Amino acid sequence: MKLKNILTLVLTLGMLGAFAQVDRSKLPEPATPRPINIGDYESFELKNGLKVFIIENHKLPRVSYNLLVDREAILEGDKVGYLSMAGQLMQRGTETRTKEQLDEEVDFIGASLFAGSTNVFASGLSKYSEKIMELMTDVAFNPTFPEEELEKIRKQTLSGLAQSKENPGAIAGNLNQALVYGSDHPYGEIQTEETTNNITVEDLKNYHATYFKPNISYLAIVGDVDVKQMKKMVKTYFGSWEAGEVPTPTFKDPQAPEKTKVGIVNRSSSVQSVINITYPVKLAVGSDDEIKVRVMNQILGGSFSGKLNMNLREDKGYTYGSRSSLSSDELISRFNANADVRNEVTDSAIVQMIYEMDQMRNGEITEEELELAKNSIAGSFSQSLERPQTVANFALNTAIYNLPADYYNTYLQKVQAVTIDDVKAIAQKYLKPENAYINVVGKAGEIAESLKQFGELTYYDTYGNEVDPSLAKLPEGLTAEKVIENYKKAVGGDDAISTFENVVMDMEAETFGQKLPMKIIMTNGLESKITVSFNGQTAMEAIATAENASTKQMGNSIPMKDDQKEELAFANGLFGEFMFAEAGAEVKLVAVEQVNGRDAYVMSVTLPKGSSYTLYFDKESGLKVRYAKTIETPNGSINQTIDYEDYKEVNGLMIYHTLTQQAGPQKMVATAKEVKVNQEIPADTFTVK
Fold first, then answer.
1. What is the total count of domains within the chain?
2. Phi first, then psi: what are they for 200, rounded to 5°?
3. 468, 571: one domain
4. Whole-structure pTM value
């Protein structure tokens, strides 16, 4: 045997012998972390008070600038949203450049430029370092806030707000903010259509003039730079920036409820409940508890392997995921545990979430859980050090929050020093399910009674305003059948419907900025055909009859189950609702809710083959105004809605002229260009191939 092979064999046998000595029933003792060198930086301060940090990194020929305005939180009042808009508009035109000119110059040198209400960030190749700084300071010091750009952002914002009203997660966020912080605290303010419409260019200009001051600002420079040269550039471009007094408002700290309160936003079409257990927490940045809190939360719900997820997802199968969060904040922080679960297990999920919080307080934590949490935190921290910007962020945090000079150098040591007793003590201090808001967005008719076991139940609207549930009660004696009969009268009555054979609608659909031709053909039955074209080709086609249905995208058929085919026929048919009784569909009135600011009767529909969805009928006009359905996907549930708007009379019939379809973040608005009834249509129009 060759010497090399002999040595290899000996080494292998030695290793096996060593492994045989290991007690695998115990976790290996972790090595004591050594202090780490985060990295050096140069810092100086201009006469106007601007504090500058320069981090040299010559690995790549790139440079980045981050200007941070460290203002206090601001109460926006009846103009909530203007701070965000101010940031967006800063880069849409300056005193020397239009938006188009600014974009062109940035693109020409391959740079990136971003502005927010409290910062301006720019980056690119280091050979263009001075040009990038010149562009950045132009945006930071000389924005003009063009009126036409404000209107564009206002329109986009209003569209986003309309979408968020149908998003259970966004609704839950509003409710959490409103209850935890309150409307008299900056963190509790909620942007609405009304506050958005109140915002003017003068508001944005006043904000910029008041708060963009060097004496409360920091500039971090990272990359392939020469410190001496960079100091000279900073003085050239930032030295004339004038300091000034900046308002420093104070706010009363929000308090957790004295006993658990339960809040609910009713969404009758929901098949899932969005659960949040939340309350305010005072946890200052850099406090003695901060790192221990992070370890505690990592064990509870800071990762996939957290106790909440292991219980609710892996053990009980209630949800796709359950998490918790609790991080420090200079003003006020918030604990939050959340999960999206099926309606029927809403109360059970809450019980388990509280159970896991109690287990943490009781110290039911294993060494394995503790080490897994600490290793995860250490891994994320170490990985972040690979990014040069991390050093800049650490330098900024140290200055802004007055942290100890070695705070980040000894971070891993402090993480590793956390014990089970520490975690138990921190859990007892910060986990307070008995003083929490348990907020749920879901179908009140199925879950409200079971929620009362946790505390006083209060109803809220989508913006977190308290509402009287009795005002949304159905009138005595009103049935689904009567609502459908009223709908029939609203569209024209039996006489008009009896003369109706078909309707042909030529429409223009707009989605993602693209305008697409769309055609809808429907008969006085369950036959329908919808086509959407793109570049002269059929991008989407849906055909339905009482017996069959099919859908295609770009010519490719999409498999459909029998219940889906049946639903397509009823949902896409112009007057499918008038055939529910004959088909044996189960219909039931469940609530009164608002659709686009108007009260509507909510009707649940279950078709014979098992498919179910929800319809909304305007309380005053009687017309159908919305179809809604929750669709399950591998990545969770998606709420799909179709709004029927702009009804107009055509040959004695009231027919919608606008369709607005929303599925998750995707939105399509189709507007009728021409609507005709009783047209000659090809015999094979509704042939399913």
1. 3
2. -120, 165
3. no
4. 0.81
